[in-house]
Amino acid sequence: MINRGVNRRAQVTIFIIVAIVIVAGVIAYFAFRGGVDIEKIPVSIEPVYAALTSCLEDNLRLGLDVLGSQGGYIYLPEFEPGSAYSPFSSQLDFLGNAVPYWYYVSGNNIQKEQVPTIREMEKDLARFVEEKSRECDFDKYNEMGYVINFESGKGEVDLKNDKVELKMKMNFFVEKAEDVARITTHEIVVNSKMGKLYDSAKKIYDKEQEDLFLEKYAVDTLRLYAPVDGVELTCSPLTWVADEVFNNLEIAIEANTIALKAGDDFSLSEEENKYFVVDLDIDENVRFLNSKNWTNNFEVAPVDSNLLISKPIGNQQGMGILGFCYVPYHFVYNLGYPVLIQVYSGDGQGGMGEVFQFPVAVVIKGNRPREALESIASEFDIPPLCDYQDTVVEVNAYDMQLNSVIADISYECLGASCNVGETSLSESLQGNFPQCSNGFVVARAEGYRKSREMFSSINGGYVDILMDKLYEQEIEVFMDGQPYSKEVIISVTSENSADTIMYPNFKKIELSEGSYEFRATVYRNSSLKFAASQTNQCIDVPQTGLGGLFGLTREKCFDVEMPAQIISNVLSGGGTQEYYVLESELINSNKIRLNVQSLKIPKTIDELQNNYLIFEDRGMGVVFK
Q: Which H or E element spans position 7?
């Protein structure tokens, strides 16, 4: 007798087993599609994945170049403009590339730092690779029948002394015919000394903040190339033209800065060469750069109509007993200029290799180095001159229609700024001034341009100050006749003011009647490579022996190597225009349109240089609306 019930149960069991096998196969198939180790990638798909890793590696190397050329930043911190008093902005324009200062003095005379940490650099680099990975090109493989899909990824970067590690989480799916792969984790390692270069750069910066060695060299240069203090036997007045003194200082600072070397990176065969060696405990090569064309600030007092004048003693009535004449002189200088510090590793073939660079502002106050920075933001100390305000001076402030203006009055002399008081609409200010020759009375009032009037307070007296009313205007930019909404650096300068804004983030500017230079500069993204170069530089150095005691110098020449640079932003449009602004235009308008023209996007260094030549001669339209 056959038991059919048992047979049917056996058949059902077999069907269940078969179903389980099928489901398991389906799961295994999709599991295979969802995660494949690199070692198990099908041979036909390996070229596609190699293209991805090559793209990630190229982006990582490009990011490292940008990171090194921009002081440890890929995404620049917020731009802060300078002012007429302190012209440093928060960034140095180096070959058209913005490099954030690690130390600078802001437009309102505050010392500031913006030194990136190694962790911030790693985050910038990871973000850069993440964004660039979306541009990886697989068109060639799509045409060959591959199906390629990938999503935005999340990267982590580890900057080490001798390498950089990138770990990228990103779904990357490839399929062709029967071969399928999906890879979710991608690891890239490149040989790079960027981490070590940063550590060395930080050591140099810390030494500068502690020892102020750049300021000490600046004081030496000042005393060697400009009249500071001394005595000469002559019965005629001594005069110097301030502009000529400043020009000589610019040339000397540029040459002497470039001459600085680190450690044993300089031949010490001649005794005077040791003067230019900076004791830095680092293994990498270092260059110090300055250009007279970079933003700087030179002030001197006392000065009379652009002349530095010292009068003789001994030829006055009643002093004939001396039998000779002599001229003592003493001038007080305030200087500020950038130094770009480059730390680089050789490539083993005589080249510059990788470069990490950052600028700092060198500041001299009253012929002396600035005080070392103690905090992220600190104001300069008020000099003791303001403790002796014992001379009464009558002060009035008026607008251009001779209406009285309520204004805060201060007195600037020898680098000090002393508060005096406030004018009123009904009577003059009887202010207490410190005694000073050829100082400046400064008036500040809401809605008016700051005014400065030269005034010697030794004998008291009175001074009237005229103030220009300010009118707020909105800037709009048109490129080639069309509205332009991308970034433009706009500078509006006059004899008494200098304003810079980053359009379109900032569009408002305040103007008063007067002559201005309007300048608009348009930059666009680029990866242009600036090749390394070598030039010969000659400077004056002190003589050794007896000649050095008398200030004698001799010419010393040496080769200067300029490292290769990645220029991430190139000049691509803009112009300049001199324009006299009438008060009637300011009253009847609230908007200024700047009409600029574009320039060809340069693909070579020659084209970039040509753009700068064209830019200097190119005007632009300035229209009040």
A: helix 4-34
Least confident segment among 104-113, 169-178, 455-464: 104-113
d(CA 211, CA 192): 30
Domain extents for the chain? 33-77+124-190, 195-379, 384-466, 471-624
CATH code 3.10.350.10 for 384-466: no
- Percentage of the chain modeled with pLDDT above 70: 79
The structure tokens listed for 604 are 């070579």
Residues in the chain: 625
Distance CA 455, CA 614 (A): 43
Cβ contact 290:215 at 8 Å: no
Find the radius of gyration of the CA atoms of the chain: 33
For residue 337, list its beta bridge partners: 362
User: How far is residue 34's CA from residue 498's CA, in Å, rounded to a whole number?
Assistant: 60
Average pLDDT, the chain: 81
Best mean pLDDT range from 7-11, 270-274, 316-320, 439-443: 439-443
Residue type for position 277: V
Q: How far is CA 98 from CA 112, 128, 131, 229, 575, in A?
A: 17, 17, 21, 38, 19
Structure tokens at 415: 């680098």
Which pLDDT belongs to residue 295? Answer: 85
